[in-house]
Amino acid sequence: MIDFNNKSVFKLKQNNEFAEKVTALLLDDETVIDSYKSMRDGVVFTNKRIIAVNVQGITGSKKDFTSLPYKNIVAYSVETSGTFDLDSELEIYLSSVGKVRFEFTGSTAIVDISKHISLSIL
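Structure tokens predicted for PH domain-containing protein:
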């Protein structure tokens, strides 16, 4: 599992590369909402959960997939981008893991993501 205490901020940019990497993990009724990539790692938002992908090793062939189901989120906070600050942020508080923070650069479907979280926890 990713150590979110030491790696709590992901600087992510929209990229479909990681959506393809998690296809085998998806349930039959699960669909990808959006996919993001940092330098090596990635995050995929589905209609049921967040899948954080930690790429390990020199070659990057070893990967750790952490599933964060929306149903375990007890609270979340969204900060949208502004005129001069183009970054947006998502902080989620999970009952079993604690706080996880994602920072997005560039274009983001943060509103769509927050709607899916709300549908799952409210």
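The mean pLDDT is 87.
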